[in-house]
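Late entry, evening session. Most of the bench is empty. Finally got around to the prediction I had been postponing all week. Sequence below, unchanged from the version circulated by S.P.
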Amino acid sequence: MTAREDIAFLVGSASRVAVLEQLQRTPQRPIELAETCPCTRETVQRALAGFTERGWVEKRSPQYHLTLGGELVLDRYHALVEANEDARRIAPFAANVCDSLTDLSHEVCQRATITVGTSEDPHAPIHRFLSVLGTDSVGRFRGMTPIVSRVFNEAAARVIAPNTEMELVVDTSVLEASPAVDPEATERAAELDQFSLYLSPSPIDVGLALFDGYAWLGAYDTGNLVACLDGDDPELVEWVESEYQSVRETASEVDPVSTTLSE
């Protein structure tokens, strides 16, 4: 038998996994396994025969015991299930971020909070951003956005104090649309002494926010926020800071005052 055949045997029936899991808890007789799984005694006997043949269990009358090999197989099975669940959780975010973000470590993604918009709650990522940003003032705020959003602008305004250092990177489409879509935010930005506005020479595809040791990433589809990833994991924050800096270094500072007046 090949490893593929062994794997196929295990995952071919949920009851087989259940039998191994029960034996991992405690040695049992077939009749006990049939009650705890639950499945028929014939199903249990077939599973045990296959496991015995593969060296995953052994019979020490009258009970069956999980072997070291069986422990290893079951642990790896659970790890694969967990990895698949993580992949499914990450997929909606990963599918809608620009190529530069695909090198974000999957271990970091596993530790982060991922929020995805659904048909029942399409605004879940927006609600998540509002929740993590909160209402308390922050010492420093750095952001990057591919859209103009009144909701995001108002949320940022609540945490920007007179002494908050703020940087924002936008592309030409956002810079040109801001005065018309949200003139109040444009005027507020012009009044902030510690506010620096940067214009990226390339279109921005992802949303980003860094504030007081916390990082937030937003994934967009045709201008709509569809998923976000956030957390205070040092590795995540460091990675987001690096991505922000790489875009910031190619951008040119523009004067919010002159930009407002020119409109």
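Two things to note before I forget:
Strands lie at 57-60, 63-66, 113-116, 138-144, 160-170, 195-199, 206-211, 214-221, 224-231, 252-254.
The mean pLDDT is 89.
Will write this up properly tomorrow.
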